[in-house]
Amino acid sequence: MANDKKDPQDEAAVNETQLAEEDGDSLATALVPFDPLQRYLVEIRRYPLLSREEEHRLAVEYKEFGNIEAAYKLVTSNLRLVVMIAREYQKAFRNLLDLIQEGNIGLMEAVKNFDPYRGIRFPSYAVWWIRAYIIRYIMNDWRMVKIGTTQAQRKLFFNLQKEKERLEAEGFIPETKLLAERLNVKEGEVVEMEQRLSNRDLSTDVPIGDDEEVTLLHFLADNKLGPEERLAETEYRQLLSEKMEQFASSLKDKELVIFRERLLNEEPLTLREIGERYGISRERVRQIEERLKKKLKHYLSKEFKDIKDTVVRAE
After folding, report:
1. What is the pLDDT at residue 29?
2. Disulfide: which of 86, 148, 167, 177 matches 157 by Cβ 3.0-4.6 Å?
3. What pTM, to 2 d.p., does this model score?
4. Which one is the CATH code of 231-303: 1.10.150.120, 3.40.50.300, 1.10.10.10, 1.25.10.10?
């Protein structure tokens, strides 16, 4: 039975040919007979596509022996694949060359992480890396203010408008509840993304009113501490450090180690490491630590009458 699944490499070759024909038509009518995209497409045609056997051999050479030449051939033979994927996102970001550049970075990451012993072809694996880098680039640069920072938000960003159009074509009103059900997200997430997409970016340097010297920046609050607050903060930190040392002087053995190596250390030891040092279980170390935190909180509450709550760093 024949395999109907399309090979990414074959599809890339077809799409790259179509793109070359389209750009060739526009180039013929251009005032300046040079197109960087067309030139790039001409350059990548110099690199032949690889067979499954060649891909596997090159991938093994790079993974096992660090052969840079093998990695180079894997990258250059799949540059047309990047062009094909970049075209899918051209409506969201018109500069196709920028998308191709980001996709090429994803392609190189795919070469670094590809395992030739998994039984899949390299182009099929690389597609996911290429697409991930292109999507991340679009989300970071589509607006000055980032509108999608998580994977779920990026997915919603690209699918929201498509789903609206699909519902309208089916005769439905694209209401928030229906969109959320179709996209398998919460209604609040749909509302938030629609608000982000509808609000334009606003520069803080734009003049307000007739006075060109007054901008929005003049009305933004300054959250920096003043000289008096900075001095008070410094004195407080110094006093707190002294009190912590006084508290430490009352400890010994396991409690002292846990205090210094768990609660104060920027890279704290694990419960297991301390347990192995004293020949006790992780649970026993945790119990001692909890008891120590209570002692510390009680001590600081007496020393700092005006402090209602002292946050002690936990694991």
Report:
1. 53
2. 148
3. 0.44
4. 1.10.10.10
